Amino acid sequence: MILAVILLVGCALWALGEAIMLTGDQITVLGGTIATIGMTLAGAGIWTLKDLPGMARSGRVGIALSAFGAFSFAMVMIIVLTSGVLGALADGAVHHADIVFTPFYLLALVFVVAGMTAFAIHFRSAPGAPAVAALVPAGLAAGHLVRLFAADVPAYHETLSVALALYLGWLGVRRVALARSAPRPTAGGGV
To answer: Which chain regions cross the lipid bilayer (predicted)?
Structure first.
């Protein structure tokens, strides 16, 4: 249950940080720092999803790849915040596309696209999952691929990050709800 709380807090902070940057139409120290903390917590807390009922191999692959994606995007943001990129962005010497087409960003993108694809495969045949359950992660995977073609549109990237954080947060809420509705063993193991 602790991991579920970490996931929920992480997703909330991630979405908040991205929303701050979205309203300012640029990467900011405050928004970037909050988003980085959120991505790191979400990457650590996502492991709670392994306990969702019927979590098959493809779902566990989605968990691992999504965690790596969150950690990788957090590292990209740390680099942007600490290496003078913010000043270069403000001066016009660096554009958002210059960040998108770095190896670390592309690696993060591969992890997230692969993770969402794995979730789509899992939820397509997961027991008790509604028919549309596979569409959300599939849409997120496709949307993240479009980042390559919208490299200089920061608002697109931030909006998609908010959507990803909200989706992972929804999975965390589902995990908490299922844990709370499960029967608890009685003390002494008796009747």
So the answer is: 29-49, 61-90, 102-121, 128-149, 155-173
Q: Are 138 and 120 in contact (CB under 8 A)?
A: yes
The backbone torsions φ and ψ at residue 183, rounded to the nearest 5 degrees and listed phi first, read -65, 140
pLDDT for 174 equals: 83
> And the tokens for 46?
């996502």
In the chain, domain spans? 2-179
Written as one string, the DSSP assignment of 114-134 is HHHHHHHHHHHH-TT--GGGG
Of the candidates 147, 78, 156, 159, the one whose C-alpha atom is nearest the C-alpha of residue 112 is 147
Report the distance separating Cα 108 and Cα 80, nearest Å: 14
Contact call for residues 166 and 16 (beta carbons, < 8 A): no
Dist CA 107 CA 69 (whole Å): 8
Tokens of 34: 């909050």
Confidence at residue 184, expressed as pLDDT on a 0 to 100 scale: 63
- Listed as ranges, residues in the chain with pLDDT below 70 are 182-191
Question: Where are the extended beta strands (E) located within the chain?
Answer: none
pTM above 0.90, yes or no: no
Other Cβ atoms less than 10 A from the Cβ of 5: the count is 14
- How far apart CA 19 and CA 34 sit, in angstroms, is 10
Q: What is the pLDDT of residues 40-72, one digit of tens each?
A: 999 999 999 998 878 889 999 999 999 999 999
